[in-house]
Design goal:
Elements (H helix, E strand, L loop, with lengths): L1 H20 L1 H10 L3 H21 L6 H21 L1 H13 L2 H22 L3
Helix pairs in contact: 1-2, 1-3, 1-6, 2-6, 3-4
């Protein structure tokens, strides 16, 4: 499970790096999720990461934090498809409309969270 968390966390960090370097690309990626299938994929990603965090928390450097984050991600994963395509379009349009600085800030947050998760579960 640790290696699954590392792989998924590096994917989050990579998306964050993309948002930091090229906010327009991150917005285009976010728009890919604006379909029913995209919402299901995003929800599944959150569910898998949440479950992996719960299972990897036992041997991690921050077990309580990873357990809480795992539960939050599982709830978010279950709720994501309930958001609906139209509401996700409005949310992403609002998010993108706040400007590249705002998107870069979210990219920085995603990069930091991804790398912190890798650090928390890495056996080295």
């Amino acid at each position: 499970m640790v290696y699954l968390v590392i792989i998924l966390s590096l994917a989050i960090a990579a998306l964050g790096a993309v948002g930091l370097i090229s906010p327009d690309r991150l917005v285009r990626f976010a728009k890919l999720v604006q379909t029913r299938g995209g919402l299901y994929a995003a929800g599944a990603f959150r569910l898998v990461l949440g479950l992996a965090l719960l299972l990897a928390a036992v041997s991690s450097k921050a077990p309580e934090v990873l357990r809480v984050l795992g539960v939050v991600l599982i709830i978010a994963g279950l709720a994501t498809p309930l958001l609906g395509v139209e509401r996700s379009r409005k949310l992403i349009a609002w998010w993108a409309g706040l400007g590249s600085g705002f998107v870069r800030a979210w990219g920085c947050i995603a990069l930091a969270i991804g790398l912190l998760l890798v650090y928390a579960v890495a056996p080295w």
